[in-house]
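Quick one:
INPUT:
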């Protein structure tokens, strides 16, 4: 690990912010020869209160919708200059990439732009008051899917953007977690060594939205992976491979430290456990089968 951070301290994220830890790990792996185009979101608002910035690399703030489009344009400009070494990263939260900027992400994937698209996923629109997003999981209480007498929280399952990226024929797709730093950094390095479009999706706990203790961020990120709620994998040229294969925790153990799930009853937790077990088995079978995802999706 390099001893210097490319995200300077003194920014204004909440204590224990998972996205802040995630971005530090991403930048350590990517190194200084990059340009980051970042959509509106928590990590934009908190790292750049005018006239200050925590970014020690070139960084462009773009609107919610178009991080991937601006990154495509920046890459084209570099190409015109004859610069073939600077890497361009389109960065956004789940609001910016899974929902509002989805069209731009899809366009860049389809055009096979030579950029790395990264979603840091805290499973809600956290900086505007924790509204539900397409990436919010089933059963989570948010300000626009509040749990109550007639509501279990969000009734839909989480949107699966990594698999949607794979369906575009993306050369390299990976999921990651800040609790598995070496795995995350290896994936960033691998992604940046590949020409063409790459997509990474990183689950990053948010103590505010998840209503968890700020000292528990990494433990919760780890439990997400250990329970199978968040599966770590790579899809390289269509070949699916898990990078962590031990399921040692129950879904309930993952949910318990998080206030956003505290209203859930045993039968709803059992439904989530069943969903996770089925997905785990399907992904295991997919890996064993050797089926090429890019060909079949
Ligand atoms: Fe980080 Fe959540 Fe605070 Fe945003 S609201 S800065 S994601 S902890
Ligand atoms: Mg978010």
């Amino acid at each position: 690990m390099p001893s210097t951070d490319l995200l300077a301290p003194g920014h204004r994220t909440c204590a224990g912010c998972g996205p802040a830890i995630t971005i530090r790990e991403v930048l350590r792996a990517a190194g200084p020869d990059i340009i980051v185009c970042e959509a509106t979101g928590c990590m934009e608002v908190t790292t750049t209160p005018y006239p200050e910035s925590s970014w020690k690399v070139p960084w462009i703030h773009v609107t919610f919708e178009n991080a991937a489009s601006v990154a495509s344009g920046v890459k084209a400009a570099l190409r015109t200059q004859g610069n073939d070494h600077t890497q361009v990263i389109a960065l956004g939260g789940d609001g910016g990439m899974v929902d509002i900027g989805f069209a731009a992400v899809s366009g860049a994937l389809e055009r096979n732009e030579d950029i790395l698209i990264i979603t840091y996923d805290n499973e809600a629109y956290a900086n505007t008051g924790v509204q539900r997003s397409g990436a919010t999981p089933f059963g989570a209480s948010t300000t626009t899917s509040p749990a109550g007498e007639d509501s279990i929280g969000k009734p839909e399952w989480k949107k699966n953007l990594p698999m949607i990226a794979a369906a575009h024929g993306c050369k390299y797709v990976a999921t990651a977690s800040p609790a598995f730093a070496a795995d995350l950094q290896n994936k960033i390095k691998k992604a940046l060594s590949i020409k063409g479009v790459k997509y990474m999706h990183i689950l990053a706990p948010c103590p505010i939205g998840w209503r968890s203790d700020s000292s528990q961020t990494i433990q919760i990120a780890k439990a997400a992976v250990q329970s199978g709620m968040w599966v770590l994998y790579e899809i390289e040229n269509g070949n699916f491979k898990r990078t962590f294969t031990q399921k040692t925790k129950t879904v309930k153990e993952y949910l318990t430290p998080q206030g956003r799930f505290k209203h859930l009853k045993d039968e709803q937790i059992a439904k989530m456990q069943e969903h996770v077990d089925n997905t785990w088995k399907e992904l295991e079978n997919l890996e064993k089968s050797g089926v090429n995802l890019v060909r079949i999706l």
